[in-house]
Design goal:
By secondary structure, this protein is α+β, with helices and mostly antiparallel strands. 24% of the residues lie in helices and 21% in strands. The protein is built from 13 helices and 22 strands. Helix 6 packs antiparallel against helix 8.
């Protein structure tokens, strides 16, 4: 028996569970629980409990599983998809979920006033790029309702991975009333440090939801968090635990994630909006030092997945070549050889980020640049990027669905996710052609797009992050390691492992 104190009573070999709710510990930060605007991985995890759309993630493979959809068909030209919605599915207030509910939810997401970060993932639908950017009419969006339970989509181009996209929380059935939910749980309360979910009795698959209540505690006290886990008061810790204080090391799960940490140039001012200048700086990046603290160093953008073959790595470091490239870039731009250049690196005020920036500052100063480092608190960093007048930013992106496009979408010209504001007609063309292709041809087109991104010197790949979860999989079932580190709450249940010792009574 594992060395944890359990809230159990054993009577003649039978385990009687305590009434304590399933308890999760996460770090301290304010959750945005609006599925249309939520943008962080921790929020995505919580939203698997509160909302659901046509499809949901398989907890093991991440393949799309039918949720609110019972069937769908695709036209011969692959440009019309028709979904049949499950009859009798209801919101948490008892109101029926229909095809119109899905359409209304998506149109709210696409409304330019919503400023939804993932809206452009529906650009495959006719009229969506124009409407969400304020250039088109809502009536021209290719989403229509046929009767009460059929939703029809008219696409701009074939999109074979559409069900994978629709697993994302942004495309859930969302009621106009934010206190009404479509998922397996409802939000009972949230005070900024403690979140409580209760089982949704109206949920379309409520009979298969085992947990009655989930409590999420937010704490950055890693030693105390480990203690709560060791004593059985917490079932699952998301990253924030002192590993050395965890008694049972088998519960410490570290896994590679479908994610990439990188730095990117914001292409808003000269000369760093020109590939020749960016590539000169990239040749002067001491990659081994920059990636030195990485568990899984990254030399390209996309984490290896399926049959996708990544383009050549960014790994060359040659100061003499960098000086030559910089001199050539100045000459081509009509600048004098001694023209001073200045660059500002924007970072969060963490030790890790400051160390990265200092590595680049030392190297690029030797090229003759003036290198400024501008910092802001970690909790403000990502929200500051859009308005920050700096040239280079750090970013970590977790793929929202298990496909290379989950990363390539970040740099499509018209994407709502394009923080860099870099754009390339050739890059967009390759992604457009990939949407009409399948199999090996599609992979090759996406690899060509990634190669163009790297060749243009837009990003500096650093690492593929790893995830840390503390959870006892002998007792918590329905939880599986996966590349997105998304674990749908509807599948979780407790199965306490106990010895068959009759007449033994233990108390917490």
């Amino acid at each position: 028996m594992k060395n944890r104190v359990l809230s159990l009573v054993f009577l003649f070999g039978t385990a009687v569970l305590s009434a304590r709710p399933f308890t999760i510990v996460d770090s301290v930060h304010l959750y945005n629980l609006d599925p249309h605007t939520a943008n962080y991985a921790s929020e995505a995890q919580m939203l698997t409990g509160l909302y659901e759309g046509l499809f949901s993630y398989d907890p093991f493979s991440l393949e799309p599983l039918p949720a609110l959809v019972v069937d769908y068909k695709i036209s011969r030209d692959r440009l019309r998809w028709t979904f049949t919605i499950k009859e009798g599915a209801r919101f948490s207030n008892g109101e029926e979920i229909t095809a119109q509910s899905i359409k209304d939810s998506w149109l709210t997401l696409l409304n330019p006033a919503t400023e939804a970060p993932f809206a452009s993932l529906l650009d495959c639908i006719q009229g969506v790029p124009e409407y969400r950017s304020g250039q088109g009419l809502v009536e021209e969006v290719g989403i229509s309702v046929r009767g009460k339970y059929q939703l029809s989509l008219r696409l701009n181009s074939p999109t074979e991975h559409l069900p994978s996209i629709l697993c994302h929380h942004s495309f859930s059935a969302v009621h106009p009333d934010p206190t009404v939910f479509s998922g397996p749980f409802v939000l009972e309360s949230y005070d900024g440090s403690r979140l409580v979910m209760k089982k949704n009795s109206y949920y379309q698959d409520a009979a298969n939801v085992a947990l009655d209540e989930i409590v999420v505690l937010q704490s950055d006290d890693t030693v105390e968090n480990a203690h709560l886990f060791n004593t059985g008061e917490v079932d699952w810790i998301l990253s924030v635990a002192d590993i050395g204080s965890v008694i049972d090391y088998d519960t410490v799960l570290i896994n590679a994630e479908f994610a990439t940490e990188y730095l990117f140039f914001k292409g808003h001012k000269a000369p760093w909006n020109q590939a020749s200048f960016r590539n000169a700086l990239l040749m002067a990046v001491p990659w081994e030092a920059l990636r030195g603290n990485s568990f899984v160093p990254a030399s390209t953008l996309i984490y290896p997945i399926g049959n996708y073959i990544a383009p050549p790595a960014l790994a060359d470091f040659d100061m003499d070549e960098a000086r030559l490239l910089l001199a050539q870039a100045k000459e081509e731009a009509g600048l004098a050889a001694d023209e001073p250049l200045e660059i500002t690196i924007a970072v969060a005020d963490s030790e890790y980020s400051m160390t990265q920036a200092e590595i680049l500052r030392q190297s690029w100063t030797s090229l003759g640049l003036t290198v400024n480092i501008s910092a802001t608190p970690m909790n403000r960093y990502l929200d500051s990027i859009e308005s920050w007048d700096a040239d280079l930013f750090s970013y970590t992106w977790i793929g929202d669905f298990a496909d290379p496009l989950a990363f390539l979408e970040l740099f499509r010209s018209n994407s709502t996710l394009n923080e860099s504001h870099w754009g390339s007609a050739e890059y967009d063309r390759l992604l457009e052609e990939a949407s009409f292709a399948t199999g090996k041809e599609r992979d090759e087109l996406m690899a060509a797009a990634e190669d163009l991104l790297l060749s243009e010197g837009v990003i500096l790949p650093v690492s593929h992050p790893v995830t840390l979860n503390i959870i006892d999989l002998e007792q918590v079932k329905g939880w599986h390691l996966n590349a997105l580190d998304i674990h749908p709450l509807k599948y979780l249940h407790l199965e306490k492992v106990v010895p068959d010792i009759p007449n033994l009574v233990l108390a917490k």
